[in-house]
Write a structure and sequence with these properties.
single chain; 158 residues; alpha/beta; Rossmann fold; seven-stranded mixed sheet; binds adenosine-5'-diphosphate; binds magnesium ion
Length: 158
C-alpha cells in the first residue's frame, strides 16, 4: 500500500480534516479497513467524506448512514460506510451486516463509525482513526495502523 500517513495531527476546520482524509483516500491501493472513533460531532463523517473523495466518490453522497447502517459507494474502489451507533444486538447484528463479505471484497474499503460496537470482533490490519474535539473547530486526529499479529501476506508492511 502507498504511504498512508500515521501519527497525530491537529486540524482547525472541517475542511482541514477533509483534506487529511482525502490524502489518505488517495493513497489507498488495497482493500483496507478504517475504524473511526470519536464522540458525536467529532468529525467522523467529515473524515469519511474526505476519504471517499480520495477514492473518487462524490463526498455529497457520503452521509451518516444512521438509519440504513450501511451505505455503499463505487469509486476507484468500493467504499462500504457503516455507522454502528444504533447497533444494539452486538455481535449477532454485526454478523447480519455482512461484514465478512465486505472484508473479503478485494476492492473493498470498509469505513466504520462507532467501531466500539463491534465488541471483541477481531479486525486486525485496520487503521484506527481517533478524533478528539478540542473545542471550537480544533480536533486532534490520531492515525494508527493496527498491525497483523501474524501474516504471511503483509509481512513487509510497517
Ligand atoms: P460525527 O460523524 O463524528 O458525529 P460529523 O462529521 O457528522 O461528526 O460532524 C462534525 C461537525 O463538526 C461538522 O458540523 C463539522 O463542520 C464540524 N467541525 C468543526 N471543526 C471541525 C474539524 N476540525 N474537523 C471536523 N469537523 C469539524
Ligand atoms: Mg457520523
Amino acid at each position: 500500500m502507498a504511504s498512508i500517513p500515521t501519527g497525530e495531527f491537529t486540524t482547525h476546520s472541517a475542511e482541514e480534516t477533509f483534506e487529511l482524509a482525502y490524502r489518505i483516500g488517495e493513497a489507498i491501493a488495497d482493500a483496507s479497513v478504517f475504524l473511526l472513533e470519536g464522540d458525536l460531532g467529532a468529525g467522523k463523517t467529515v473524515f469519511a467524506k474526505g476519504l471517499g473523495a480520495g477514492l473518487e466518490i462524490d463526498p455529497a453522497d457520503v452521509n451518516s448512514p444512521t438509519f440504513t447502517i450501511i451505505n455503499q459507494h463505487d469509486g476507484r474502489m468500493r467504499m462500504y460506510h457503516l455507522d454502528l451507533y444504533r447497533i444494539e444486538g452486538g455481535l449477532n447484528d454485526v454478523r447480519e451486516l455482512g461484514l465478512e463479505e465486505m472484508l473479503e471484497d478485494p476492492s473493498g474499503v470498509v469505513v466504520i463509525e462507532w467501531p466500539e460496537r463491534l465488541g471483541a470482533y477481531a479486525l486486525t490490519g485496520a487503521y484506527l482513526i481517533n478524533i478528539v474535539d478540542l473545542g471550537m473547530d480544533e480536533r486532534t486526529i490520531k492515525i494508527h495502523h493496527k498491525k497483523h499479529k501474524s501474516s504471511h501476506k503483509n509481512h513487509k508492511s510497517t
